[in-house]
Write a structure and sequence with these properties.
This protein is mainly beta. The chain folds into three domains: 5-93, 2,3-Dihydroxybiphenyl 1,2-Dioxygenase, domain 1, CATH 3.10.180.10; 120-256, Jelly Rolls (Sandwich), CATH 2.60.120; 261-357, Jelly Rolls. Helices cover 4% and strands 45% of the residues. It contains two helices and 31 strands. The protein has helices at 15-25, 275-278; strands at residues 5-11, 29-34, 41-46, 49-54, 63-68, 80-82, 88-93, 108-110, 122-124, 130-133, 144-150, 154-155, 161-163, 167-174, 177-181, 188-190, 195-197, 204-209, 213-220, 226-228, 244-245, 248-249, 251-253, 261-262, 268-272, 284-290, 297-299, 305-319, 325-328, 332-334, 341-357. The strands form five sheets. Strands 6-7-5-1-4-3-2-20-13 form a nine-stranded mixed sheet. Strands 8, 24, 25, 26, 27, 28, 29, 30 and 31 form a nine-stranded antiparallel sheet that branches. The longest helix has 11 residues, at 15-25. The chain is globular and about 75 Å long.
């Protein structure tokens, strides 16, 4: 059983500057950060001390956070107490169960050029990567979809890390990236159209990439912890393709090796990415490609999540009979269940990345 740990909570409204100071000036080691697309909490260690920087704790005094296997045993069932000197002390579970927020499905249409064109909607996230939020409402906190890019290629300042998640996948949209995963052999390069399923808590690291790398990342829940593993070297020297992590298997889908089959959507063919089999049916991911002229199809879904990203070409989207919107490459949409939607005026030919949790 792991020893309890205590962290001093430091309010850090200027989060990026505070994190840089403790890491670069004082030499503290980063152990965890979240959320990845807009970091607001970071755990660091050094000099026999653990720190927790919290961006949203502005105005609060420094506090102590104790993580242990049995929180109820520390304060007799209480989870927070104030010391005689005014220090706030909170006690939390060292390994809490995954928090899956209640689902709140909404219609979201996200345009690549934002409202003002150019770089609208892009922000700096973990490891200096640029993030664009594709589902601002996050389906009530259940799902996150991010368009991530690295404009300038070369080595990526990443560490061996893992995520506490239910589901996470990365689709390589443009450029190439070199990665390494726990027990999946030597580092490999992922090119356009390739995809990985990152099962829960698999250790991995981004090593280097080309100029203009762009990937689409889908995760559940929306806010999840990214933790660094300073002890496991990658690669591990093993290749265990059937190893399960949280009940799921790692997937590396190679677009160039995959075939096409008739899709369940009229006028399209599909390239299945193998994620349904590796997740026991939790998620299905495919690329839909226009196979006929004059595509005009109306459908709906009955599941937990349905997301489309326009990879190439153009289309119109009409939802529940409302006026159609024109969509082109880089645009995306997320739909609530039972809401009819119509895909028409497809050209290019149209290619869509479709992610659904049935």
């Amino acid at each position: 059983m792991a020893e309890p740990t205590a962290e001093v909570i430091l309010p850090s409204p200027d989060f990026d500057a505070a994190l840089a100071f403790f890491r670069e000036t004082l030499g503290f080691r980063l152990d965890a950060v979240h959320p990845a697309d807009d970091p607001a909490v970071a755990s660091l260690s050094g000099y026999g001390l653990r720190l927790r920087l919290e961006r949203d704790a502005e105005g609060l005094p420094p506090a102590l956070r104790i993580a242990c296997a049995d929180p109820d045993a520390v304060l007799g069932g209480a989870r927070e107490v104030t010391a005689p000197n005014g220090t706030r002390v909170t006690v939390v579970d060292a390994d809490p169960p995954l928090d899956l927020p209640p689902l709140d499905q909404t219609l979201t249409i996200c345009k690549a050029d934002g409202n003002g064109g150019g770089d609208d909607g892009w922000g700096v996230g973990r490891a200096g990567m640029l993030y664009r939020d594709l589902i601002p409402g996050r389906e009530g906190g259940r799902f996150i979809a991010s368009h991530i890019r690295i404009p300038d290629g070369g080595p990526v300042p990443d560490n061996v890390h893992f995520h506490k998640i239910r589901f996470q996948m990365i689709y390589n949209y443009k450029g190439w990236v070199r990665l390494v995963y726990e027990d999946q052999g030597e580092p490999f390069v992922m090119g356009p159209g390739d995809c990985v399923l990152q099962p829960p808590e698999i250790r991995h690291r981004v090593l280097e990439c080309s100029d203009g790398l762009e990937v689409i990342e889908i995760g559940c829940p929306a806010e999840h912890m990214t933790l660094l593993d300073h002890d496991l070297p990658l690669p591990t020297g093993r290749r265990l393709p059937d190893r399960e992590f949280g009940g799921q298997r790692f997937v590396l889908h190679r677009a160039g090796e995959a075939g096409w089959a008739p899709a369940d959507l009229a006028g399209f063919e599909t390239r299945d990415l193998g994620i349904a089999a590796a997740t026991g049916g939790l998620a299905e991911v495919s690329v839909l490609r226009q196979a006929e002229e004059g595509v005009d199809v109306t459908t709906r879904h009955t599941g937990e999540f349905l997301f489309h990203f326009v990879l190439d070409g153009s289309m119109t989207l009409s939802v529940d009979g409302r006026q159609a919107q024109a969509l082109t490459a880089g645009d995306c949409f997320t739909l609530p269940k039972e809401l009819p939607f119509r895909i028409g005026a497809a050209s290019g030919p149209l290619e869509l990345l479709r992610v659904r949790l049935p």
